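Could someone model magnesium ion with this protein?
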Amino acid sequence: MRKHRAGLLRLALSGLLITGVMAARSDAQAERPNIVILFADDLGYGDLTCYGHPTIRTPHLDRMAREGTRFTDFYSAAPVCTPSRAALLTGRLPLRSGMTSDTRRVLFPNSRGGLPAEEITLAEALKGAGYRTACIGKWHLGHKPEFLPTRNGFDSYFGIPYSNDMDRLPNAGGPSGSLSPKVGWFNVPLMRNETVVERPADQHTLTRRYSEEASKFIRANRRNPFLLYVPFTMPHVPLFASSEFAGKSPRGLYGDVVEELDGAVGRVLDTLRAEGLSRKTLVVFTSDNGPWLTQRLAGGSAGLLRDGKGSTWEGGMREPAIAWWPGKVRAGRVCRGVASTLDLFPACLALAGVQPPADRPIDGHDISGLLKGDERSPRNTYFFYRDTQLYAVRKGAFKAHYLTRTGYGQAPAVRHDPPLLFNLDVDPSETMDVAAAHPDVVRDIAAVTERHRAGMVAGRNQLDDIDPPAR
Ligand code: MG
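Reply:
Sure, complex below.
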């Protein structure tokens, strides 16, 4: 009898709980914003006017920042393409999904692996809640059919399946970072859904075509919630601009390409305005990793940050990031809270009223409150992985480097014990090691690091699985 009553009580309590959850869900569902993620490739922290570039003109992104919130301490989840994208779409560090490797840093045309089917992408999670979903741009999470966007929750796909410098032909007349590259040097396929529609892709017009496709998708879905993910091909080398932008920027070809990217962002925002969707749509703009410095004039700038793409110094992973949602994301705000692409997965699910998966670790934090104007970020720590190794850990203003290595080149990793310690508030360029003055901070970060390591289970490596060499 007693057992029976306890059972009834539990039933009533769980009923209350379910009602509470349903209420929260329907509130969120009433709002259910559209979500647009605009993701540049290899854009540096210092490459936009609103982040201090003196000659690259980015009026549309500057306006987006004035009408929205600009982040100073926003990180990508990895310093190179493939793992960074895997993390953005799953909210999980790439080591967990197996989308990172110490031997092959990204997927290549001879790769056989890709984002494992058991991973839940943002598109899959939102599709389950009635969102229409499109991916327009560079995928780089596996180009075999089973790994394409259309098998990962996206209703449609238009773009190139991996980087634009891959499938380089033997007769290419110059380096990928040439300032006058030719389309014919790179036999990169352009795909619609699962079919190659152009090869080599005419890279001069990719940015423009992506923004046209994006606008078309927005117009077609103005009456239902949608997720639009636009991972631009540029400004990853080789650099191509359309005739409208080529030769116009004082910064040269790299500037032309970034200015065209800015124009594409402007076109997407203009379409949202024209369709009356501004107040129903969260738009986030950021980049997958820092500037590819070894490309010299064909690479971008990390501004005052140290190093660039490939490294776990700030320049490799701290990105320009702007959030825009008129009426919800505060206009003209500069947010100094620590946040990451990892956080977009839980934040977007929360905004859509979708419960995050409970059967796996999620490394992202729900920053929907921060986006809407909360003063404090739910995130106080950040873990900087290069490939499968944890190189550095940030807690508050302090960042400890256990390993350092420049982004590209032959120099091996250098181990630091005690770690190098930088106070990023006073020394964002990471030039003055203050470990000796702060043994307590070093100990505190060491404890955080140990806890993190204890909870990390690596997924099966997807990047080292390659086609056998042709005989
Ligand atoms: Mg990249």
